Amino acid sequence: MSHQITSPVLPFMRRLPSEMQPGCRIRIRGAMSRPNGDCRIHLQSGDCFDPMDDVALHLNLLPATREILRNSYISGQWGQEERAANSPINFEEDFDFVIGADSGGYNIEINGHHFTSFNHRLPVQTVRFVFITGGCVIRSVMFEHWNTAVPSAISVNPSAPVLNPVPSSPPIPVPFQIPSWPHGNFQHFGMPPAPMYPQLPHPAFNPAMLLQHPLIMNFPNEMQKNIENGSSMPYKIMITVLWKISCILFKVLKFILVAVLGGVGMYILAKRLRL
């Protein structure tokens, strides 16, 4: 029997339909929404993050490096990390990701093909929750080969934040971090990506604006003040002013050189035409 959840809000936490057993599968369909982002999936024993409950299977999908990291978190300690290269998951491409449990471990399928596996470090029956977060868009989560209905509500541990907001409400950033994250590319769970603001046109350079700069207008007063205090700031101000002036002189000389060369070229061309 299958149970499907469509368009879940991230971060997403859901109690499994029942105790996980060999033969149960979790199918996740979605796409990566950030070029350098990731997608983290946990199969864990509880819904608590402070302190975090045991994680039988931690998955981190990294399209930028085409890797999938696998690990476990048991009794407050991360285990030995395993890496699988040549992942077919790419930025802005839909993926069909399946986690299947058997007696030996978890089998990972991507787009209908077996990709990698992870041996059990905890009994599969200890897994009660699935958690998903990161720079991805999840279109559906399907529980396959479970024989009971998906619970209508989640029993949340009082010490843990609420991770499953009502779909009609706006996403709420989750103010917690996974302890001692075992690898790089860390992001706060639930925090939205930085907005992309349009680039405004840079104003044209006007030499008169330089003379109105507070650094230059107040130069005599600041110079005298810093000399009296014995500070080295006057030299820094002088270097800055000289650099600005040299930039202006360079532009002026460049303009004069172009004009002179252009005039010489026109003179030579006119002389040749007369001949």
From TrEMBL:
Q: Please tell me whether the keyword Ribosomal protein is annotated for this protein.
A: no
PROSITE patterns linked = GALECTIN (PS51304)
Q: What InterPro entries does the database record attribute to this sequence?
A: ConA-like_dom_sf (IPR013320), Galectin-like (IPR044156), Galectin_CRD (IPR001079)
Q: Which SMART domains match?
A: Gal-bind_lectin (SM00908), GLECT (SM00276)
Q: Which GO terms describe its molecular function?
A: carbohydrate binding; galactoside binding
Matching PANTHER family: 32 KDA BETA-GALACTOSIDE-BINDING LECTIN LEC-3, GALECTIN
Kindly indicate whether the keyword Transport belongs to this entry.
no
Per its record, how is this protein called by name? Uncharacterized protein
User: Which keywords does UniProt give here?
Assistant: Lectin
